[in-house]
What we know:
alpha+beta, seven-stranded mixed β-sheet
Amino acid sequence: xxxxxRAVSLAxxxxxxxxxxxxxxQDVPLSxxxxxxxxxxxxxxxxxxxxxxxxxxxxxTVIIQYYYKDVTVEPVKDDQLLRVNIGxxxxxxxxxxxxxxxxxxxFNGDIKESIDLVPQKNVPAKxxxxxxxxxxxxxxxxxxxxxxxxxLPSGKAWTIRWTGTRYMQxxxxxxxxxxxxxxxxxxxxxxxxxxxxxxxxxxxIEVTNTLRLHDEYLWGIGEMPSSWPLEAMRAQVIASxxxxxxxxxxxxxxxxxxxxxxxxxxxxxxxxxxxxxxxxHLWKNAVISTFQDDSTxxxxxxxxxxxxxxxxxxxxxxxxxxxxxxxxxxxxxASVPDPWSTDPLLNARYLHWERPISxxxxxxxxxxxxxxxxxxxxxxxSGTVGTIVGRSSTGKKVRLMGETFRSRVKLxxxxxxLLGPQISNATPTPTPRPTPTVIHxx
Length: 442
């Protein structure tokens, strides 16, 4: 009888364990769905807001002083050379010029502004100059139109110059840089290719474009459509110049750069912006309109120092302070009404959005093995999520700032609600959202 009872007990325990395991697996959803409005971190100038104000007749200075508090717009020296990262953590990259009579010159090492040096290789038009990472060295090569490949000595750093720049006489060459299947055109300055040791990844290739901030860099900023009103573009130019001035000369070893060309800092797309069909000249003219002379341009100053002028696409109706978004105060940022972002004609794309996010990405954001329940625990005055808590199937809870969470799971903004699934007995009450106020239309 004891043997029988023991066998029954073991069988029951096994069934309970199986049932418990099955129940737990059912409680772990495959994905979560979020809805929200706006795009970006919400700090500083709303680009949709700048557009709306410009359409209403406001000037760039008025727009800037609306979004940044206690600032002035003044001319400052901006002819410094800026080192812009245009290729980060790469294993290979290729450059060429198709300009008739154009030529690339390859120099061994990072030669900075040195002149009268003898190039390692002269590369004619329509010949690709390739750099490939192998172990702890980069191997360059030249690929000719007939398919012939010429291997060049390996190394750790190179500088590439081309005709038509301040460094070389000759045809005004345009350089095409191909990385990961994407080709971007560059016209100014010089390009550096360097081996850098990256944390957890080993060695990688970093590629930078060194050029003049005043004009060559700003002509390539890709943060705003070139078809938008002039005063909105001028506000963007002034903000972008200020942001770049706050970074110049502060070279980071991780990217071999002063500033990134992507969302880490601000989008720089090189000559591709300037030659944008139908509109590129409008952006270039907007940049030129902010020049005071050949070496100074308008910038945003706080206590007489150019600010890191943060900007973003659109909000949920009210901008965010740096304190609420990132947990650290920035004196010239403030939370101000941004009704233009809630205008369906101005912000049709991000007035309302909905996104499914996978269980794997949500769990990774919280640093948990899985997430069965999330709860928004507070909101800021702007309407953004202040904190959000995730709970795993084991009961462990992790709390994140709303901006941190949205950045990790790649939601468009922190103006969001959780639609589901709901793994609880209680039905949550959706947080009321302000009724959009439309005050400017196209």
